[in-house]
Design a protein that fits this description.
Largest sheet: 4 strands, parallel
Number of domains: 3
Radius of gyration: 28 Å
Helix content: 40-55%
Structural class: alpha/beta
CATH topology of the largest domain: Rossmann fold
CATH superfamily of the largest domain: HUPs
Length: 485
Amino acid sequence: MPLRLYNTRTRKIEAFQPRREGQVSIYVCGLTPSAQAHLGHARSFLFFDILRRYLAFSGYHVTYVQNVTDIDDRSIAAAHRLGVSWREIVAGYYAEFKRSMQRLGVREPDKEPYATDFIPQIRETISALIEREYAYVASDGIYYRVGKFANYGALSNRNIAELEAGARIEIDEAKEEPLDFALWKFAKPGEPHWPFEPYGDGRPGWHIECSAMSHALLDPAGTGFDIHGGGADLIFPHHENEIAQSEPLMARPPMADFWLHGGLLLFDNRKMSKSLGNFEPLSEVLDRYDPQAIRLLFLRTGYGKVMNFTEEAMAGAVATLSRLRRDYRLLHEAAASADGTAGGGGSLTERVVAALDDDMNTAAALREVLAAASAPAAGDARERLRELRSVLNLLGIEPDDRWLASPEELPLPADLAGALRAEIGEPWLDGIDDGRTALERVVAERLAARADKDWSRSDRLRDALARCGIEIKDGKEGSAWSVVR
RNA sequence: GGCGACGUAGCCAAGUGGUAAGGCAGGGCUCUGCAAAAGCCCCACUCGGCAGUUCGAAUCUGCCCGUCGCCUCCA
């Protein structure tokens, strides 16, 4: 059963077939780092990360390009506002984004082209469009002549008349038609600019960089590439415009066979976006929640569906993750003591593959993984572990040291001794700076209190420990403590 | 106004013709000084509403209602 994907271009689920045997070329619209990335970005890139992993797992050699639109009105405006250069703005936000992606386990793109590194190719593309009358020079820039491209609207399923009826487009006198969009904006005083003879210095408009860079990096022959992706909010106008810019210059359209779009993430039932400002920066969400839990959260919903983020749902994902870790650790322990009878295995992988073949149904795949991880010991533990690890890897979940550590072996919270001193404030903690020593001292104090049946003191100490990130479990033989993950 | 998606328990969500997965929250029990953790059990006679197709529908069709998105910068 081959991989089947929903193709925005045809509005159908189709069997995926790459153009070149064994190779897949993907272009995904990346970030415009003119503001902090938010959780919605994470959802989108997390999906393409899993798609990539799955294609590679299926034996394809994948070339994954994800651009950086490093020049746009917003970063210029932000630079003016903050009195720094636009390059600093972009570099800062992009570095933060990259760190977040790394924390989420999203693999680096094979190529990460910056728009401003492709100014020559952008100029070339614009010149070619002007030559063929798909573009014209106006007083404040160079525009794309939408009316000239017969297929305009095909991707997003709309027609020019409807779009004009929308009438939310500002009338710009410089343009021939309201739908025409800028390919090149002539520089105003104080704005960054690049030369473009004979038309005038300026900067690229949004959209053109993707046409120029996908052509340069994935499709020099002008015959198209395999997959073009991005968030659903890019379908119109961004991807529609990319097609309009690229296809008239191609030897053989379409620009890309498959157009894949990730569903938007809502927050408080509203779109999470820069302009609404109802988002928390991704980096802060990652501070609050385990990145692997966030990955699980997104895995549970179909990639193309609108999804609403809630703290409650997030708590559910956190619980799922800790159960998965425990199951994994138990399986790991069983595998270590197994005497190594050969096991068949393979069926979990088959079920996961079947799920992903069905338009990347990660929810079904995850369901299989969780069921297999928690299944009562059946078959060879080592084989099961090996398979579980492989399938987790496919979903981008990499068991690390913390997965194997029992809760007592996890690293202690930073400055635990100080925190405990502040919480408890009793003299016997004075001078103890080592977290572990302090912790053991508190546990011993509490045990003494319990022996005296001084329950209120015992509970007070337990609460203090809890506030410092240490959980106490009283058992038959003493009290065990564990670090709250 | 146009185009599109979605509407399944308090929350998230799977299921797309054969009689409602799972998780979280909640409740009960075991354990405990009390907890926590863990384990067991319970928790949608029903899938926004109304018609229709069918032996049979959450799943197909039509209409209606609602929410959200795109149509302007956006993953």
